[in-house]
């Protein structure tokens, strides 16, 4: 048997460079290691993997950091991934992945398998028609008019799960995008908002997903 024949049917080894990329929309949570830990609790925020390779990962995230900052990110699919920020983005950042060669080989094989078998670009429909928005970047408006960038975890006709750099209390009033509601539950990470009025399903993303500049324009148009 020739060498060419013997190689038939064998899976190609996964590449360990940045050319093997998975474009995804996978949810997780992260924290910057420079953030202080208070009362034995670490501050986590929600995030989504936008692209991952055995070398680097890009996250959509509500709070960024500086080049060189260490990040720990947790995902059901990948476990804990740790590395340093290499490039800030408008709503998130790209980070290198620090791991031994053996773990990098396993990650490369897993990324290759996911690329061949799974599609995380499709929004996940769950009970009560709670869905993951295509774009997680939005804005919350507090009672005093303060605007804060936020990461929208999921949305429904009656409420949303949000992650933002703010401490909240049950009953706290705020608007997500153009819809007013109140905090009804604290999550890990983030918090849940219940809307004062039901939002039509077809208008959910239009009303709730509003980056700050877009929201300012909408509010001025309504004056």
Instruction: Give the strand tally.
Output: 12
Q: What's the CATH class label of the largest domain?
A: Mainly Beta
Going by CATH, the architecture of the largest domain would be Beta Barrel
Largest sheet: 6 strands, antiparallel, barrel
Instruction: Provide mean pLDDT, rounded.
Output: 83
The structure class reads alpha+beta
Approximately how much beta-strand content do the residues carry?
35-45%
| SSE succession | HEEEEEEHEEEEEEHH
Poorly predicted ranges:
1-11, 120-128
CATH homologous superfamily descriptor of the largest domain: predicted glycosyltransferase like domains
Whole-number tally of structural domains? 2
Description:
The protein has 223 residues and is α+β, with helices and mostly antiparallel strands. It folds into 2 domains: 9-117, Thrombin, subunit H (Beta Barrel); 127-222, Beta Barrel (Thrombin, subunit H). It has helices at 3-6, 101-117, 204-208, 212-222; strands at residues 22-32, 45-52, 56-60, 70-75, 79-89, 92-96, 137-142, 147-155, 159-163, 173-176, 179-186, 191-195. It has a 6-stranded antiparallel β-barrel. Strands 7-8-9-12-11-10 form a 6-stranded antiparallel β-barrel. Strand 7 and strand 8 (147-155) form a beta hairpin. The radius of gyration is 20 Å and the shape is globular. It starts with a helix and ends with a helix. Mean pLDDT is 83; it is low at 1-11 and 120-128.
